[in-house]
Amino acid sequence: FPSHDNAPIKFQITAEDALSKFEQTMKSPEGLLKRYKPVGAKISRKQVSQNQMSFVATKTVLFVSKSVYVNGILDSHEDSKSCAKNEVGYSLEMNFDASDRLVSNNVERIQATLCLKELATNKVSGVAHSKIIIGKEYSSALGPVAIGLVKEQVPALLDALTKEITSLR
Q1: What's the confidence (pLDDT) of residue 3?
Q2: Average pLDDT over residues 28-51
Q3: 8 A C-beta contact, residue 122 and residue 18
Q4: How far apart, in whole angstroms, are the C-alpha atoms of residue 20 and residue 155?
Q5: What mean pLDDT is predicted for residues 128-141?
Q6: Are 72 and 54 a contacting pair, CB within 8 Å?
Q7: pTM across the whole model
Q8: Mean pLDDT across the stretch 5-25?
Q9: Which of 88, 99, 115, 158 is the 20 to 30 Å CA partner of 23?
Q10: d(CA 30, CA 17)
Q11: Helices 143-167, 18-27: crossing angle, 10 deg rounding
Q12: What is the rounded CA–CA span in Å between residue 124 and residue 12?
């Protein structure tokens, strides 16, 4: 499948035991998904259950307003292959198979690798590399809109991740 690579995003999280709280968040991402606010469209009917999230996104493109049902399933596991020796790595994947065809035809899934390095017990720095796996029936008209929308979600998800980790006790 062709993919669309995004520029890496650097981030820092300051929280007591930041690394173990990050791992805790990856093991049970419900809090993260609840905290996450999708951007770039009007969002309604957002629901979260364990590692699954769904919502209706309404976006106006060329004066036409269109609503799509988005259903994402988040899977993550520890994977330090692409990280430096002193870093902890995680592989994340959000799959859109159960979304409206407008979404799933154009964007199959988004994959991300997060590499984290402990700077101090209460500070972690990280880099997120993400790529969008293009759907089987990618449309040259709507595909770029779908990719643009999914790409905008990466910083929003990292923001939710930081807030979730700093909120954990």
Answers
A1: 78
A2: 94
A3: yes
A4: 21
A5: 91
A6: yes
A7: 0.88
A8: 91
A9: 99
A10: 20
A11: 130
A12: 6
